[in-house]
């Protein structure tokens, strides 16, 4: 179908000009800017269900979903009502409140954790989990994987050192060498590298942290048994296994990535971090795990951790309403929409002759514009082969046809249970022309 006449983007352009004058890059989180794809971001005025409306009146099918949280779609009436009710009773007291108990009970019932502590962002969750692991074990070294993002925690903004089991170097200016000198960065899905790191440094390793299934270098599923192997290796060396489910939690499946591996294989992580879906679109995140480990947190134990807005009653009310509404049926709906869209994307790219790979875990997937002859994307080095120039052309062709994809080639495409036939059809209609644009790039 030909693209309908659209209202233009003058309003977004004007706001972006103002934004750049008062905010670095005009955005409050770098990936929102269109630096990787060119052009200026759209300023969104409102959203409902699967649709975003920008300040000029353009409508877009949303394939970002706030980078994961909006599992039920935007402005879900029951979540809105619960939030309105919470707001009417005041927004923050600095005392314990009922909804934080209920949300903690809901998470403990669903996820492999016995205790949970709320924070306000995924970054805080991983930062706190690592502090707790170090405090609990009395050890200093942290192991992570290249391409796994755990928020902007100094010690985790690390790039691999010169050898496999050598310590990391800062991944950004502003992180001192001393902050990454206790971090080991390994290639993902590489058992030999993990074994070597633990053989050389095992008695110093406090924890290994991994995305439960990486989604921040595009979706790179753990090879079968890889997470179980990590859990066992950590246990053998007295280190804690931290599964970062900030992105996958309550999204990849009802039980997160753990529902797709650990629950079936019979192992549990020592600590888990959560965010995104569990906040229902508000700033709420959490870390949790074994009771004997969590017991080391203040005020029960000596490891300090705190937050003025932690467990905020409005945010935890939104998260609770979202999780209660996130039934098996919701995951089936999201999964079906994901299957339709990833199948159609692959068909359109194939038709246009664009080399690509689609990878998924549960309801999450991403499209790599890379040659499938080189094999699956198993790690960050593989992910880096994706053709970012072709993706930029693809992205803009989709945007012009009313589909807002992540403005980066290294991201999952997020759907919601509000992605109904009309939303999915809009995506399917846009794909052939976008695939041709990618082919010509
Ligand atoms: N861990 C993972 C796996 C994430 O995907 C993210 C955010 N994309 C974070 C941690 C950090 O969360 P936040 O942006 O809320 O700090």
Q: Report the β-strand fraction as a percent range.
A: 5-15%
Helicity level: 25-40%
Question: Largest sheet, order of strands side by side?
Answer: 4-12-11-10-9-5-8
**Contiguous helical run count:** 14
Number of strands: 15
The CATH architecture designation of the largest domain is 3-Layer(aba) Sandwich
Tell the overall outline: globular
Radius of gyration, whole Å: 21 Å
Q: What CATH first level of the largest domain would be assigned?
A: Alpha Beta
Do you know the CATH topology of the largest domain? Aspartate Aminotransferase, domain 2
Profile the largest sheet: 7 strands, mixed
Poorly predicted ranges: none
What number of domains?
A: 2
Class inferred from helices and paired strands: alpha/beta
Helix/strand order, N-terminal first: HEEEHHEHEEEHEHEHEHEEHHHEEHHEH
Instruction: Quote the average pLDDT.
Output: 97
Classified in CATH, the superfamily of the largest domain is: Type I PLP-dependent aspartate aminotransferase-like (Major domain)
The distinct ligands, each listed once, are: 4'-deoxy-4'-aminopyridoxal-5'-phosphate
Terminus-to-terminus distance: 22 Å
Pfam families: Aminotran_3 (PF00202)
GO molecular function: glutamate-1-semialdehyde 2,1-aminomutase activity; pyridoxal phosphate binding; transaminase activity
Organism: Nocardioides panaciterrulae
EC number: 5.4.3.8
């Amino acid at each position: 179908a030909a693209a309908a006449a659209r209202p233009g983007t003058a309003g977004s352009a004007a706001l972006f000009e103002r934004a750049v004058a008062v905010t670095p890059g005009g955005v409050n989180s770098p990936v929102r800017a269109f630096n990787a794809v060119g052009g200026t971001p759209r300023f969104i005025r409102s959203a409902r269900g699967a649709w975003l409306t920008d300040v000029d009146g353009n409508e877009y099918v949303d394939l970002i979903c706030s980078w994961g949280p909006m599992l039920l779609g935007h402005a879900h009436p029951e979540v809105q009502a619960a939030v309105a009710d919470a707001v009417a009773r005041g927004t923050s007291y600095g005392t314990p409140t009922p909804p934080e108990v209920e949300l903690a009970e809901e998470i403990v019932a669903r996820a492999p954790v016995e205790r949970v502590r709320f924070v306000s962002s995924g970054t805080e969750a991983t930062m706190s989990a690592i502090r707790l692991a170090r405090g609990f074990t009395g050890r200093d070294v942290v192991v992570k994987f290249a391409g796994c993002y755990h928020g902007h925690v100094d010690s985790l903004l690390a790039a691999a050192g010169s050898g496999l089991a050598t310590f990391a170097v800062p991944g950004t200016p502003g992180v001192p060498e001393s902050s990454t000198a206790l971090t080991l960065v390994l290639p993902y899905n590489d058992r030999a590298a993990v074994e070597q790191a633990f053989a050389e440094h095992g008695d110093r390793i406090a924890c290994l942290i991994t995305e439960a299934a990486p989604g921040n270098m595009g979706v790179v599923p753990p090879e079968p048994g890889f997470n179980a192997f990590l859990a066992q290796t950590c246990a053998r060396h007295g280190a804690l296994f931290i599964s970062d489910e900030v992105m996958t939690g309550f999204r990849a499946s009802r039980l997160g990535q753990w529902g797709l591996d650990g629950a079936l294989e019979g192992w549990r992580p020592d600590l888990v971090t959560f965010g995104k879906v569990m906040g229902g679109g508000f700033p709420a995140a959490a870390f949790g795990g074994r009771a004997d480990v969590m017991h080391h947190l203040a005020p029960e134990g000596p490891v300090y951790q705190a937050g003025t807005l932690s467990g905020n009653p409005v945010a935890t009310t939104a998260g609770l309403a979202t999780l209660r509404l996130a039934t098996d049926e919701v995951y089936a709906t999201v999964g079906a929409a994901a299957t339709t869209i990833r199948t159609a994307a692959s068909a359109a790219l194939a038709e246009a002759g664009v080399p690509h790979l689609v990878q998924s875990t549960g309801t999450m997937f991403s499209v790599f514009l890379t040659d499938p002859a080189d094999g699956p994307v198993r790690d960050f080095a593989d992910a880096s082969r994706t053709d970012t120039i072709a993706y930029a052309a693809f992205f803009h062709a989709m945007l012009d046809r009313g589909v807002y994809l992540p403005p980066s080639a290294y991201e999952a495409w997020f759907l919601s249970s509000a992605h109904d036939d009309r939303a999915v059809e809009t995506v399917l209609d846009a794909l052939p022309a976008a695939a041709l644009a990618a082919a010509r790039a």
